[in-house]
Design brief:
The protein is an alpha+beta fold and 471 residues long. It is 56% helix and 18% strand. The protein has a 5-stranded antiparallel beta sheet with strand order 6-5-4-3-7. 23% of the residues are buried.
Length: 471
């Protein structure tokens, strides 16, 4: 039992038209409600800072991590309106405050409740959009992270628009419930129209251009394209703007500008919408060193073989074009399955490295050696067969020809052309080294001299016309 003086102070002393007990109970209920609301909002904000882990190539983002987060937000915000309603019932029916304090309390909790309902409607539409996107991708077959992003970019903006409309209707309902005159509510309703009339024409232009991009589908998420002066991968297509990941930054371009500028799409789409788009890969290599027809044929063969065997390249093409300085330009074109810069650059670097290895190999598959001038005619005619025997001992090397083509200043020169199917440059160089060593050993064993260029210095002695001195 409370002391009589304390009970009298709590139950009989009045403040703001209420007893101290009523004020203390109202304050306690309001503080508990605010603490719970702050806790719910902190948990809500924490969900936006959680990083969604990407699955491996076989698993997908379709495991539902984003969907679970969306419905977690709906659950958290859904706690606010019941808490507000329960707190308002406790204060009105059990604490039993009256007068202006009751009206202010009701207004406070009604405002919190309806604002929570508006936010709940927006988040609920967003969660429904993510769930619908996920199931659409699953029903289409061949689900992938890229396909999920494409479907989400089409569905999520529409869901957010409907959620925002419901939230706005809830806000107008709150204004009417608070007792504002109909003229005031209509004035609030005219604000969006006034904003659109004064400065939101660009927003409407972006919205209509975004709808045009989404319906005509000239671009898709994950495709490689050029918009104006910018070139990169499309990471997002919204109703207002488009995000383009260039090699150095991320650029946000309004949809109205995309609709007005020249757009070049380098991607190749398959018949199945679930299949990822293929991005074009073009390489031009200038060959300015002297190259014989055999090396051109060997280079063309090895480049086509490397492109056909590469798991990164699809639909490969290779060709030669003359350059302005009487050299050649090797042009390679293929399609790469990549939806972002890291994968695209990785495939590009692997192919460039392989192309450089092929050029090094082709430069070594055509070489010459010389024999001395005193080599007999029979030996000269036998040298091609000697070289052929050496190449037959190397399993992956095929001799195309060994010909006596030049009489040099110090030697009689033979030129060797051969092909090799070694899978790597290191194995080719090892085989090439074995062939050269075997060639030198065989020529020495048969007594065929490989001349070394030398310089003979002739000393000039001046002859005098006078007779030598007598001893």
């Amino acid at each position: 039992m409370l002391p009589a003086w304390l009970r009298a102070d709590l139950l009989e002393r009045m403040l703001l038209g209420q007893t101290l007990a009523q004020l203390l109970m109202t304050l306690v209920i309001a503080l508990v409600f605010l603490l719970l609301t702050v806790l719910v909002l902190s948990l809500l904000f924490r969900t936006y800072h959680q990083k969604v882990r990407r699955q491996d190539a076989e698993g997908m983002l379709l495991r539902g991590r984003r969907v679970d987060l969306a419905w977690t937000r709906v659950f958290l915000v859904g706690l606010i309106p019941p808490l507000a309603w329960f707190s308002e019932v406790l204060i009105d029916d059990y604490v039993n405050i009256t007068g202006g304090m009751l009206i202010a309390t009701k207004f406070f909790f009604y405002s919190i409740s309806y604002l929570g309902l508006g936010l709940l409607a927006f988040l609920a539409f967003e969660a429904v959009g993510r769930s619908v996107s996920r199931w659409i991708v699953v029903l289409l077959g061949h689900p992938s992270d890229l396909q999920l992003r494409r479907v989400s970019n089409l569905i999520m903006p529409l869901c957010r628009v409907f959620g925002a409309l419901v939230a706005i209707i809830t806000f107008y309902r709150l204004l009417a419930l608070l007792g504002l005159p109909p003229q005031t509510v209509l004035a609030f309703s005219a604000v969006p129209g006034l904003a659109i009339g004064l400065g939101a024409s660009k927003l409407l232009g972006n919205l209509f251009a975004g709808l045009s991009i989404q319906t005509d589908r000239p671009l898709k998420v994950g495709e490689f394209c050029q918009i104006g002066e910018h070139e990169g991968f499309i990471s997002k297509i919204g109703l207002r703007s488009l995000e383009l990941n260039t090699i150095e930054s991320r650029i946000t371009i309004p949809n109205s500008l995309v609709d007005e500028q020249k757009v070049i799409n380098y991607s190749v789409r398959g018949g199945d919408p679930a299949e990822p788009s293929l991005q074009g890969l073009d390489l031009r290599v200038v060959i300015d060193q002297p190259i014989v027809p055999f090396q051109i044929r060997e280079l063309f063969r090895l480049v086509n073989q490397a492109m056909e065997e590469s798991p990164d390249l699809n639909l490969p093409l290779a060709s030669f074009d003359p350059s302005v300085d009487e050299g050649l330009i090797l042009t390679c074109h293929a399609q790469v399955e990549a939806s972002d810069w890291p994968r695209y650059l990785e495939a590009r670097q692997r192919f460039i490295l392989r192309l450089r290895q092929i050029l090094s190999q082709v430069s070594q598959c055509y070489f010459s050696f010389g024999v001395s001038f005193d080599t007999s005619s029979e030996t000269l005619r036998a040298i091609p067969e000697i070289v052929a025997q050496i190449f037959r001992a190397e399993p992956l090397a095929r001799l195309s020809g060994c010909r006596f083509l030049r009489i040099n200043e110090f030697s009689l020169d033979f030129y060797v052309e051969y092909s090799s199917d070694q899978p790597t440059l290191a194995l080719f160089e090892d085989a090439h080294s074995r062939l050269l060593c075997a060639l030198i050993e065989t020529l020495r064993a048969r007594g065929i001299e490989i001349p070394i260029p030398t310089t003979v210095e002739i000393e000039k002695v001046e002859l005098s016309a006078s007779p030598p001195p007598s001893p």
